[in-house]
DNA sequence: AAGTGGTCTAGACCACTTG
DNA sequence: AAGTGGTCTAGACCACTTC
């Protein structure tokens, strides 16, 4: 037989099949990328080389390379900016949703730079869905709808939708909503939520949300919602937060709740 | 020009380009699948048709189809069993990690059938890493290492690693560890944790974990860890939980923590 | 204008599950 | 034994960002 025949059959040309470990190629590429990232000590938010360059380096197609990159993305080691490329993830922001402390405060406390951008603020009726969800008396009850985007170190990490009962915090729209809402409620209205119910789970961002977070359509996200009650136990605020999943670690301390 | 020329160029042959909506094809397939799933009222845990069949139905390749399926997977609507196929996700288990209530109890309370399988149970020194992580006095301190797999309705949803200070619950290995550890500690040892610190975030399952949960390598997971303290404030237990991300919704109630 | 990531095709082989 | 999902190749075009 002619040894010089080109490897027409892909099977023998696949490098990973000749190696001892029976791992898929994209897992080996991921591991290599992890060690490369660690060795080069790439700073947070720095950009990775182009996909075509990486694919050439690992002798694979872009499809396979992207499979490896998506693993690192799910693990929170790198993130994507839509159509811009891949970047090294900074450490997760540690967020305790049970604490009466606003985004601006706990991000600053971790040595990072927070920014809040108010995308929308309006007053209107709650509507049937929200009234039921919040446990309001009637759907015509007036509420404020806020939509805000929050940044950490030049990167959008969170979309936040707040619904606040209007009579609980009148004149809210005259305030500066690009600051801490927690602080505003405390200092302007003297309010401290006495109780809240939280729910959170992973899910995908919808297309609009992904665009607003400069993420790719269909990106993973982390969803957190909070229903807060006022001093008399009445529902006063309903929040929904959509996070970049690599940007966040939820932490909390429990005081031994007796049965 | 000859109108009968075959469409050699893929551009004009791609169906999604001729549609009004500028959405990528895989997003349209996802939407179609969502409505199909809703219309057919497929029961939880039932299997979807084969990928090749779905790809033919949507006139796309398997690559594109799988992109759509992976979106539904991230959203928690369907899940995968490695090499077996795609299945409809049942409702998420609601889990309050601040409550003193075990897996067996809260799964049952939600009308589902829990099962706990003890994969490993041994006694040994904590080791340097764990001792530091738990705040133990010295790394030689004896602890129990448990590794358990938990099921809901015939499906493995959770891997749990428990580390318990041995002197806090002696003779633990003589007990039935395929039941509720919470209950065991309470009834056998009279223990109720007085305080705990939690941390959670999305990440990927490693290969062994994925295999144990019958998931595909590199699947998304949800990580939750808990460091619990005993009656005198001493560290007594360190848990790490790796969940199938579609199986879980974390819920909790906060009593207005004053500053 | 050049280059990038996003999307897609049309195949292929293999390991594994199912019957 | 047949069929499935898991993995991979070698291209391609487009929309968008960057320069």
Automatic annotation (TrEMBL), chains A, B:
Keywords: DNA-binding, Transcription, Transcription regulation. It comes from the Bacteria. GO terms for molecular function: DNA binding; DNA-binding transcription factor activity. The keyword Transcription regulation applies. One of its GO terms (biological process) is negative regulation of DNA-templated transcription. Residues 23-91 form the HTH gntR-type domain. InterPro entries: Bact_HTH_transcr_reg, Chorismate_lyase_/UTRA_dom_sf, Tscrpt_reg_HTH_GntR, UTRA, WH-like_DNA-bd_sf, WH_DNA-bd_sf. Coiled coil: none annotated. CDD domains: WHTH_GntR. This is GntR family transcriptional regulator. It comes from Stutzerimonas kirkiae.
């Amino acid at each position: 037989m002619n040894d010089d025949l080109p490897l027409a059959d892909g099977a023998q040309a696949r490098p990973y099949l000749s190696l001892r470990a029976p791992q898929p190629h994209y897992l080996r590429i991921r591991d290599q990328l992890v060690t490369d990232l660690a060795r080069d000590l790439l700073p947070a938010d720095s950009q990775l080389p182009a996909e075509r360059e990486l694919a050439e380096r690992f002798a694979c197609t872009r499809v396979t390379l992207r499979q490896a990159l998506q693993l690192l993305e799910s693990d929170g080691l790198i993130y994507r900016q839509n159509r811009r490329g891949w970047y090294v993830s900074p450490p997760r922001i540690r967020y305790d949703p049970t604490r009466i402390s606003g985004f601006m405060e706990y991000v600053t406390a971790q040595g990072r730079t927070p920014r809040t951008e108010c995308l929308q603020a309006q007053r209107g009726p709650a509507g049937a869905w929200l009234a039921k969800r919040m446990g309001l008396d009637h759907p015509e009850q007036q509420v404020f709808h806020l939509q805000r985007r929050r940044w950490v170190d030049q990167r959008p990490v969170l979309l936040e939708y707040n619904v606040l009962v209007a009579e609980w915090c009148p004149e809210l729209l005259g305030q500066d909503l690009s600051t801490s809402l927690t602080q505003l409620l405390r200092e302007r209205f003297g309010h401290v939520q006495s109780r809240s119910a939280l729910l959170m789970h992973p899910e995908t961002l919808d297309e609009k949300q992904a665009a607003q977070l400069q993420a790719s359509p269909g990106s993973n996200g982390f969803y957190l919602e909070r229903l807060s009650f006022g001093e008399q136990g009445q529902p006063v605020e309903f929040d929904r937060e959509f996070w970049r999943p690599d940007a966040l670690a939820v932490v909390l301390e429990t005081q031994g709740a007796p049965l």
